TrEMBL record:
Residues 91-317, 446-506 form the Rhamnogalacturonase A/B/Epimerase-like pectate lyase domain. One of its GO terms (molecular function) is polygalacturonase activity. Residues 1-28 form the signal peptide. It comes from the Eukaryota. This is Glucan 1,3-beta-glucosidase. Keywords: Signal. It comes from Coprinellus micaceus. SUPFAM superfamilies: Pectin lyase-like (SSF51126). InterPro entries: Pectin_lyas_fold, Pectin_lyase_fold/virulence, QRT3-like, RHGA/B-epi-like_pectate_lyase. Pfam families: Pect-lyase_RHGA_epim (PF12708).
Length: 809
């Protein structure tokens, strides 16, 4: 690809290594002005109410002038597997590193010093989980002259009450104000991190102001966001030039394997977003007064939910037409609940799709106000006329029904999927709920688990301490998991009313013999008991296990159901279920190298990662359910052979929202829906295990009739990416189901046959709609009753193959 060097005249200066130590200086009073244009974060679709029974419980009535709790709370988070576990500091306030935030001083060096201090993972480091950091910006205006480079495992967090402004200086001459994967100066296109492995990043609560950068300069870019799974952008506003010659862009993203972003506003610019990435889920983005709202350069599949364009010239400008491995353009877009107001062209593609495969497009519930063209082609052809109207359900691409494997090319209306009212907000859109940040609460509304006996040192058994904390503080305080690695050796019950917040992804992990028997699987974290109703909010947490042998661990059992009237009141945001591959897991290359196969006992990391049970509801946003295929610490590249039985099993009767989730490398299935009902998913992403079919699924996990679909009869079965049985009203709005390996080799990728089947729907399911299904290297893209129906070879669309719609009916 064309690297940055050809796009920008000047390159990033090499980072000076920082010798700055943490200063004990207290935060100076903030003097800068801070236009608070970002509205309240917790003002969510859901209205959650608490009735505290004790005076000391959290009330959420902090005054506007009181500091954001994250700034005020005692910071005692640690990284136990860091080389200096006692000295390493997770939380860094940029003002402690000399940032002034008055809009006058150049704060670039101070901000980057806060990011880099204490040997973090920058240039030359592939990845690391032992140097996590929250880099915090109090309210103020921070002038920058070159890029802020968030190192691996960094959360950049602004004051959620008064989002700070990052003000690009008129001389700003770099790739972007925030650059999550810089090109190495003189590196011939090499970058800091491998784009598909650029995990664990989050940026929240900022205003990025580019308007002082001359309009014609593309250096006026808000974020270079070339990232992968377990990343998020949230609550960010970017201001750009609206001059006719503007070259400004809110986000520039040329590669990656994401990912989730949401609650973003772009004002002005040539492009609100200029993007290309294997797959991504974007929720709640508004672009005002840009020339082009979103330019889509390439993908295998994106889901765009709740996108609004106001006064743009073009809403979506989509590069299409590339059908070969080396000429990948935009494979599949799934657009739901969009609004285009005074935007003459809602969608335009670069090539026509007449009778052709390229450029699969799905539109569900788009409201147009004064558009001339709903869907058009560069050069003027109108595929779907504009106007002031609602597009209920429309698609362009190959469509299938039931067991009929004959493709039909459609450029027109599609059957509108049935959406349960429980999934919708009052205006009929799919519910979205912003990541709770508790900005109206005081630090005293939180309890620290470390203040209440938990150690989080990666060694101590914290089971009793955590049980006691949950019992005492659920439905009262917000439970703060100071950064750390908390071990439990028996089931921990997380009661209704729990609000728990991690610090740079605090890890809570099950260890020990109680979780070792796969014939008697045992829950590690039980969220509610079956039948329980209440609010649960989990943010910035990683659920995990520690080896050896936890083959019987069901890591999270989700039983909680949201209270009536509190849609998405039980959920997880920026939280993940991750096993293996990291320091402290005992599932690293030293224990479970891919070169020594068959360490089934010592290298079994879970029975099932997430069980969404029958009586529950759940909102899961950005959740990555990942069994590591390579180690993130150590070399950062070595492949490992660790085993997990199953990814996600849902038996819920709904509502369940899976917004931007992934499930990878589990032996039997990634996503399974059994007797499930009223689910919305977009986009779901899977990868099959790299070792399969040696051994073939379900080995090393014997078939378990309670948890597994009947094994299918191919000679060398691989894991299902998606398996649906006896289910009803399941709406999948974007899926990327991938198979990249056979026994760690990749010849099967160009041959497009790493596995035989990847998605199965049984004949007893009804009301199943799958839009925008992309698969990689599975000979059959979709099966009904375990018989392959859709041939991949009929739907080749660049690297992946794409089906625009399949439905049971
Ligand atoms: C990045 O994306 C471009 C398409 O824009 C593609 O040609 C290139 O191969 C990708 N590079 C990597 C390293 O994935
Ligand atoms: C969408 O994002 C905006 C800006 O962050 C926020 O104010 C609004 O509450 C969000 N709406 C929904 C439905 O999430
Ligand atoms: C890639 O595909 C596009 C659209 O069909 C076409 O215009 C372009 O020439 C192709 N490029 C190459 C290098 O084949
Ligand atoms: C799918 O491929 C199989 C095997 O090549 C072939 O027998 C079958 O006719 C194909 N199905 C369709 C609908 O073309």
């Amino acid at each position: 690809m064309a690297p940055l060097a050809s796009r920008l005249g000047s390159l990033i200066t090499l980072l000076a290594s920082s010798s700055l130590l943490f200063s004990a200086v207290a935060n100076a009073a903030v003097t800068g002005t801070s236009p608070n244009t970002v509205s309240s974060i917790v003002a969510a679709a859901a209205s959650t109410s608490f009735a505290p029974s004790v005076a000391a419980c959290a009330t959420g009535n902090a005054g506007a002038d009181e500091p954001f709790w994250l700034e005020a709370i005692t910071h005692q988070g640690t990284s136990p597997f860091n080389r200096d576990p006692n000295g390493y500091r997770v939380f860094r306030n940029v003002k402690d590193f000399g940032a002034v935030g008055d809009g006058i001083h150049d704060d670039t060096a101070a901000i980057n010093a806060a990011i880099q201090a204490q040997g973090r993972c920058g240039l030359g480091c592939q990845s690391s989980t032992v140097t996590p950091a929250i880099v915090y910006f109090p309210k103020g205006t921070y002038r920058v002259t070159s890029a802020i480079i968030p190192y691996y495992y960094t959360q950049l967090v602004g004051d959620a009450k008064h989002p700070p402004t990052l003000l690009a200086d008129p001389t700003f001459n770099d790739m972007a104000v925030i650059d999550a994967d810089p090109y190495i100066p003189g590196g011939g296109g090499a970058q800091y991190w491998i784009n598909q492995n650029n995990f664990f990043r989050s940026v929240r609560n900022f205003v990025i102001d580019l308007r002082q950068v001359p309009p014609e300069k593309p250096q006026g870019t808000g974020l270079h966001w070339q990232v992968s799974q377990s990343t998020s952008l949230a609550n960010i506003v970017v201001h750009m030039s609206t001059a006719p010659n503007t070259a400004h862009q809110g986000i520039w993203m040329e590669n990656g394997s994401g990912g989730f972003m949401g609650d973003l506003v772009f004002n002005g610019g040539k492009f609100g977003m200029w993007v290309g990435n294997q797959q991504f889920t974007v929720r709640n983005v508004t672009v005002n007064n840009a020339q082009t709202g979103i330019y889509m350069n390439w993908n295998w599949g994106w889901t765009l939910q709740g996108i609004t364009f106001r006064n743009c010239q073009i809403g979506f400008d989509v590069r299409t037409g590339g059908l070969t491995l080396d000429n990948q353009s935009s494979g599949a877009l799934a657009i739901i609940d969009a609004v285009a107001s005074n935007t003459p062209i809602f969608i335009q593609t670069s090539e026509p799709s007449n009778g052709h495969l390229a450029g699969s497009l799905v539109i569900d519930n788009a409201k147009l106000e004064n558009s001339q063209v709903a869907v058009g082609v560069v050069g003027g052809a109108v595929v779907l006329a504009g106007g002031t109207k609602t597009i209920a359900s429309w698609g362009q691409g190959n469509v299938y029904h039931g067991s009929n494997g004959v493709r039909q090319f459609v450029q027109g209306n599609l059957p509108a999927p049935n959406k349960a009212s429980s999934l919708l907000d009052s205006s009929g859109r799919i519910v979205g709920r912003v990541h709770p940040q508790y900005e109206n609460y005081r630090a005293s509304d939180f309890v620290s688990v470390k203040d209440h006996g938990a150690k989080g040192d990666g060694v101590t058994d914290d089971t009793a301490a955590l049980k006691a904390i949950f019992t005492q503080y659920a439905n009262c305080k917000i439970i703060f998991f100071d950064a750390g690695h908390y071990i439990v050796t028996d089931t921990v019950y997380i009661p209704p009313g729990t609000r728990m917040v991690g610090e740079a992804w605090s890890v809570i992990a099950g260890r020990g013999s109680r979780f070792s028997d796969q014939n008697n699987p045992r829950v590690v974290f039980q969220v509610g008991k079956p039948g329980e109703v209440g609010v649960v909010e989990i943010t910035d947490i990683i659920f995990s296990t520690v080896g050896p042998n936890v083959a019987g661990a069901i890591i999270v059992e989700w039983n909680i159901h949201e209270p009536s009237g509190a849609k998405a009141g039980a959920g997880m945001w920026d939280s993940h279920i991750r096993t293996g591959g990291v320091s402290g897991s005992n599932f690293e290359a030293a224990h479970c190298p891919s070169t020594v196969a068959g360490r089934y006992d010592t290298c079994a990391a879970a029975f099932l990662h997430l069980h969404i049970t029958k009586g529950s509801s759940g909102y899961f946003e950005g959740t990555w359910v990942w069994l590591a295929d390579h180690e993130l610490d150590g070399s950062g590249v070595a492949q490992i052979s660790v085993y997990s039985g199953r990814g996600i099993l849902s038996e819920s009767q709904g509502p369940v929202w899976l917004i931007g989730t992934g499930s990878e490398h589990h032996s039997v299935y990634q996503y399974r829906f059994l007797g499930a009902k009223d689910h919305f998913m977009g986009l779901i992403q899977t990868e099959s295990p790299y070792y399969q079919p040696t051994p073939a699924a379900p080995v090393p996990f014997p078939f378990n009739a309670k948890y597994d679909p009947q094994p299918y009869q191919d000679a060398a079965p691989s894991a299902w990416g998606l398996h649906i049985e006896r289910s009803n009203n399941i709406l999948i709005f974007g899926a990327g189901l991938y198979s990249f390996f056979q026994a760690y080799t990749q010849d099967c990728v160009p041959a497009r046959n790493c596995q035989a089947q990847i998605a199965n729907i049984d004949k007893a399911s009804t009301g199943i709609s799958i839009f925008s299904l992309s698969t990689v290297a599975s000979a059959k893209m979709l099966s009904v009753g375990a018989q392959g129906v859709i041939n991949e070879s009929d739907n080749v669309n660049g690297f992946a193959s794409t089906v625009t719609f399949w439905g049971t009916e």
